[in-house]
Amino acid sequence: MKITIKYFGVIAEEAGKTEEVLELDSDDIDVEFLKDHCFSKYSLSDTKSIQVAVNQNMGASGPLQDGDEVAFLPPFSGG
Fold first, then answer.
1. CATH number of the domain enclosing 40
2. Which of 11, 54, 65, 70 could be joined to 60 by an S-S link, Cβ 3.0–4.6 Å?
3. Which residues have a Cβ under 8 Å from the Cβ of 35 and sit 6 or more positions away?
4. Which domain covers residue 34, as residue numbers?
5. What's the pLDDT score for residue 79?
6. Does residue 78 belong to any structural domain of this protein?
7. Helix or strand or coil: residue 25?
8. Assigned domain for 45 exists
9. DSSP secondary-structure letter at 60?
10. For residue 79, is it within any domain?
11. Domain tally, the chain
């Protein structure tokens, strides 16, 4: 399964990249597993305040499909 991951803001700075494509061996991967995997891999901090979007849908959770795009977004404020 191929998943495109996009990192924004301070997350991209900490990871040292804005995007990557992961080839995963299992077809049974969910959003939380992927988040834990990526944040462990890059020793990213403050995982609780990070928002996740799957295929541009904020707050998505559950299983991922081949070809999905997952974005990790730092906290932000509007005005």
1. 3.10.20.30
2. 54
3. 47, 50, 52, 72
4. 2-73
5. 55
6. no
7. coil
8. yes
9. -
10. no
11. 1
Do you know the residue count of the chain? 79
Q: Would you put residue 72 in left (φ > 0), alpha (ψ -120 to 50) or beta?
A: beta
Residue type, 20: E
Tell me whether residue 23 is in a domain. yes
pLDDT tens over the chain, length 79 residues:
999 999 999 899 989 999 999 998 887 899 999 998 898 998 887 677 889 999 999 988 899 999 999 999 988 766 5
Token reading at 73: 């977004």
Looking at residue 14, the DSSP 8-state letter turns out to be H
Beta strands in the chain (DSSP E): 2-7, 19-23, 51-54, 57-58, 69-73
* Structure tokens that stand for 2 in this block: 């191929």
Q: Considering the entire predicted model, what is its pTM?
A: 0.89
